[in-house]
Amino acid sequence: MESGRVVGGRYRIGAGGVGDVRFGQDIRSGRPVAVKMLDGAPGPAVRLRHPGIVTVLGTGEHEGRPYLAMELLDGYTLDDHLLDGGYRAAAVADFGAQIAEALAVAHRAGLTHGGIGPARLLLTPAGAVKILGFGTVAPAPGSDLSALGDTLDELLARPLPAGPPGELDALVSQLRDTRGQDPRRTEEFAARLRRLAAQPTAAEPAEPAQPPRRPAAAQRFWIHRRPGRLPLGRALVVVIVAGLIAVTAYAIAVTS
């Protein structure tokens, strides 16, 4: 999809994107969107509406290939955030509650995600978790709840202190052993996770986890810049400034 092309008579493709996802704009509303090309027709799950599920704004075909137009979000996946270490239990319980509440909506509709994992969970700067890929990922073996248990286990920083974090560890084990998609079971786990998120111990501060600070320009849907390496331009500036400081210090030492 070249920049400037209009998909579906409504979504103008802009600069930026990754893989088969491109940034664009809804020319009717002016709203920024993410346009994703699909290999097959989207599933009924794209009609789901919940704050924890990325909203699909429109579907159709472009040059014979199905596409989705979705809300464009700032944030990074939980998989990217794991580069900065695991999370304390209160934060993991909060993430788990948000995910389970969204999954409950799908399970009540008789739908599953089939690919829950850190790489398909977007954390926004406000601390909200959004599930990516509903209706577009190939289902994996096992259940959504079992996959959620594996995900929360991966997110937890260890060792866990005593108290509610230990209860979370037990709940995660139950999730990992859960099969099937009973919506009542999903809602039960969501409520239990929500209660644990509100019960931090003295070793677990009450404030919600703050996501690592990222360059604002890079915080875009499905664009995840790996931390740990300065861009070349910024690195050159750092080197030049350091050199000027060293020269100035030497001049002061010589003339004093």
Can you give me a brief rundown of this structure?
This protein is α+β, with helices and mostly antiparallel strands and 256 residues long. It is built from 6 helices and 9 strands.
Explain the overall architecture.
There is one protein chain. With 256 residues, this protein is α+β, with helices and mostly antiparallel strands. The protein contains 6 helices and 9 strands; from the N terminus they run βββββββααββαααα. The chain has helices at residues 78-81, 89-108, 144-155, 164-176, 183-197, 232-255, and strands at 6-7, 11-18, 21-26, 32-37, 56-62, 65-71, 76-77, 121-123, 129-131. The strands form 2 sheets. The protein has a 6-stranded antiparallel β-sheet with strand order 1-2-3-4-6-5, with no helix packed on it. A 3-stranded antiparallel β-sheet has the order 7-8-9. The model is unreliable at 205-256 (pLDDT under 50).
Overall 3D shape: elongated
Summarize the biggest pleated sheet: 6 strands, antiparallel
Neighbour order of strands in the largest sheet: 1-2-3-4-6-5
Structure classification: alpha+beta
